[in-house]
Design a protein that fits this description.
Blueprint: E1 2-4, E2 15-16, E3 19-20, E4 46-48, H1 51-61, E5 67-70, H2 81-84, H3 86-96, E6 100-105, H4 114-123, E7 126-131, H5 137-143, H6 150-162, E8 167-171, H7 182-194, E9 199-202, E10 206-208, H8 213-224, H9 228-236, E11 241-243, H10 247-260, H11 267-275
Parallel strand pairs: 1-4, 2-5, 5-6, 6-7, 7-8, 8-9
Antiparallel strand pairs: 3-4, 10-11
Helix pairs in contact: 1-3, 3-4, 7-10
C-alpha cells in the first residue's frame, strides 16, 4: 500500500472512496479497467490518508443532512482496513454529525463496525449492502478468492437483521456459462429471504469487460475453466457487455420470487431508498 493526500473525499452525489485498488482478487472486477487510469498496481492499495479530515470539513459545511455512500468503486473493508481503521474513522464522523450511510461491501469485516452502524441507524439511517455472486462455496472461492465466502456474508446479513439494520443484496455479476443459472439465483434468494433482505439489485445476466479487466478475467478462465475463454471470444468478441443467453428467463424468475417474498427488485426504487435521508425515519421500510 501507499499513501497520498487527497484534495476531496465526497463526490457530487455524496459518495466517497477512501481506498483505490483492491486486494479481494475478484476475477471479474471492472475497477481494473484501463479507463480508470491507475498509475500503480491494482493490488498496491492507495490510501487517502487525510480522508477523515476532509470528510469532517465537508459535513460541517453541509446545510442539509443526507446519505453518504461508500463502496461503489472500492470496497471499504479491504484487508488493510483491519490495521488502518480508516473506514471506521469515517463512520465515527458520520455518526457524530448524524448523517446517514449506505455501505457496499463483500467482506464480513464490516461486522467490526456494527456498533457504529447501530448508532447511525438509531440517529438517522444506515443501510448495509452486500454483494452475493454465487451460492456455490467452491465457485465463490474461484470467483472472489481473497474475501469471505457467500455463507460468511450471509452470516453477516443475519447479524444486521438481528440488530435491526436494513440490508440490500447486489446479485452481480452473473457470468455467462458460469453462474447464470436458475439454481444459483434460487440459492441467493433463499439466503436473502432468511436474512430479511429488503431488496435485491439485479442488473441482468451478464458481465462487463473492458481493456485491463478483460485480460485479467481471461487469464482466470484459462486457470479455472479451460476452453471457456475461447467460447467467450467466439460469442462476444470485444463487446463491452457479455450478455447471458438466459437473461430473460433469469430476470423473470427473479422478479417472480421477489414478489412472492415481499422483496423489491426494482433498481430505481432501491437506489431512491439508498439516497433518501428521511425527515422522519421509519426503520426497515422502502416507503
Amino acid at each position: 500500500m501507499h499513501f497520498r493526500e487527497a484534495k476531496s473525499i465526497l463526490s457530487a452525489q455524496n459518495g466517497m472512496n477512501m481506498y483505490r485498488g483492491c486486494s479481494h482478487g475478484c476475477i471479474y472486477c471492472d475497477s481494473r479497467s484501463a479507463c480508470y487510469n491507475f498509475t500503480h498496481d491494482f493490488e498496491d492499495i492507495e490510501v487517502k490518508i487525510n480522508a477523515p479530515h476532509l470528510l469532517e470539513k465537508a459535513l460541517k459545511s453541509k446545510r442539509k443532512k443526507c446519505m453518504i455512500g461508500t463502496g461503489s468503486m472500492c470496497d471499504p473493508y479491504l484487508h488493510i482496513e483491519s490495521k488502518l481503521e480508516l473506514t471506521r474513522s469515517l463512520l465515527k464522523i458520520i455518526d457524530k454529525y448524524e448523517f446517514g450511510v449506505a455501505v457496499l461491501t463483500k467482506s464480513d469485516r464490516i461486522l467490526r463496525d456494527i456498533d457504529l452502524l447501530k448508532s447511525i441507524n438509531k440517529k438517522s439511517k444506515a443501510v448495509v449492502q452486500m454483494t452475493l455472486t454465487t451460492c456455490d462455496e467452491n465457485l465463490c472461492k474461484i470467483l472472489e478468492p481473497n474475501v469471505c465466502t457467500t455463507k460468511e456474508r450471509f452470516a453477516a446479513l443475519k447479524q444486521f437483521q438481528k440488530e435491526g439494520i436494513p440490508t440490500v443484496v447486489w446479485l452481480t455479476p452473473l457470468l455467462p456459462y458460469i453462474n447464470d443459472t436458475v439454481e444459483n439465483i434460487d440459492g441467493i434468494i433463499d439466503y436473502c429471504i432468511d436474512a430479511g433482505v429488503k431488496g435485491i439489485l439485479y442488473f441482468g445476466g451478464g458481465v462487463t469487460l473492458r481493456d485491463g479487466d478483460r485480460e485479467y478475467f481471461y487469464r482466470a478462465l484459462d486457470r479455472h475453466f479451460p476452453g471457456l475463454k475461447e467460447k467467450y471470444i467466439k460469442t462476444f468478441g470485444n463487446a463491452y457487455y457479455c450478455r447471458s443467453e438466459r437473461e430473460a428467463e433469469l430476470k423473470k424468475h427473479l422478479m417472480k420470487r421477489c414478489r412472492a417474498n415481499n422483496m423489491t427488485a426494482n433498481p430505481d426504487e432501491i437506489f431512491a431508498y439508498l439516497r433518501r435521508y428521511p425527515d422522519k425515519y421509519e426503520q426497515l421500510t422502502f416507503e
